[in-house]
Amino acid sequence: MEGALIQPITPEIKSLYYKQGYRLAGKHLHSAVKICQWTKESLRSGRVCYKELWYPPVQSHRCMQMTPYIGCNCHCLYCWRVHSGDREGLIWREFPLEVGEFDEPAEIIEELIERRKELLSGWKGNPRVDRRKFEEALKPTMMTMSLTGEPTLYPRISELIVEAGKRNMITFLVTNGTMPEVLENMDPLPFQLYVSVPAPDKSTYLKIVRPLIKDAWERLNRTLELLPSLETRRVLRFTVIKGWNTMNIEGYAKIVEKAKPDFIEVKAYEWVGQSKERMPRNAMPYMEDVEDTANKIASLTGYEIKGKYKPSGAVLLA
């Protein structure tokens, strides 16, 4: 069993990712890309992601959703991906990944762009897809590091941002905040930095996040304290899980006061993927639940509601 545990990406894991629409890249298979639902929606119907509406210059059809590190140091209950041990016989070393060495940033990006083109190729013959938009989609102008895993565990993340810039892509980085030393030393920082906060206090955090490291809550708080000093567009994302993490709104207000973000996203947990095996369906809130939480946070912090997007269950505060 020990031998199985230190296998980073077994053929079974690779097959699972492949069936779920991911494509792994690099010699060590620690990077991945997938076509975002909103890229498909933008091509098919013209409907776009809330990021396009709220955060210029985002274009949904030209966003490359990827990760440079498919492992994670948390096993969040609400995460849509399969964790080691979720399914019988499917066990691998998720953290730290045993890859020996990491792939080069330039090689990762080049290969992910090619894998993404392959995933999009089937859309070329779709009569509902605008030809000009399809051709544009093959040349991403944005790289979002949020697909799966924790991207700040990739040790050359700043170089990755540089390489994205060389290819005329802005970068969004979504982190669980457990690697404050990485964010502190990043140069350059991403165009936009998200810190995902799924709980307002330590006991709720430990129950929902199930971290694989002992001091995850303390490390997240170091990140929140660091956030005001980081010169980039900073966003806190609060995931609303009905009946699980909305009892202590004052805790969220204290987090906002500490982090002083440019924006706050209050966003619904979605009952999708592997999370359906861990969470009850009624943990997914209605839009009015999300708005209620956002209004309470606004009243305690002085932030104002600037946008609502029902298809994603998201409310923007600034």
Describe this structure in words.
With 318 residues, this protein is of the alpha/beta class. The protein has a single domain (30-81, 108-317), classed as TIM Barrel, CATH 3.20.20. Helices cover 35% and strands 16% of the residues. The protein has helices at residues 2-5, 11-19, 37-45, 50-54, 105-120, 131-137, 157-166, 180-185, 202-209, 216-226, 249-259, 287-301; strands at residues 23-25, 31-34, 63-67, 142-145, 170-175, 192-197, 233-240, 263-268, 305-309, 314-317. Helix 5 crosses helix 7 and helix 11 (249-259) packs across helix 12 (287-301). The chain is globular, with a radius of gyration of 19 Å. The N and C termini lie far apart (50 Å). Mean pLDDT is 93; it is low at 1-7.
Give a quick precis of the structure.
With 318 residues, this protein is an alpha/beta fold. It has one domain (30-81, 108-317): TIM Barrel, CATH 3.20.20.70. It has helices at residues 2-5, 11-19, 37-45, 50-54, 105-120, 131-137, 157-166, 180-185, 202-209, 216-226, 249-259, 287-301, and strands at 23-25, 31-34, 63-67, 142-145, 170-175, 192-197, 233-240, 263-268, 305-309, 314-317.
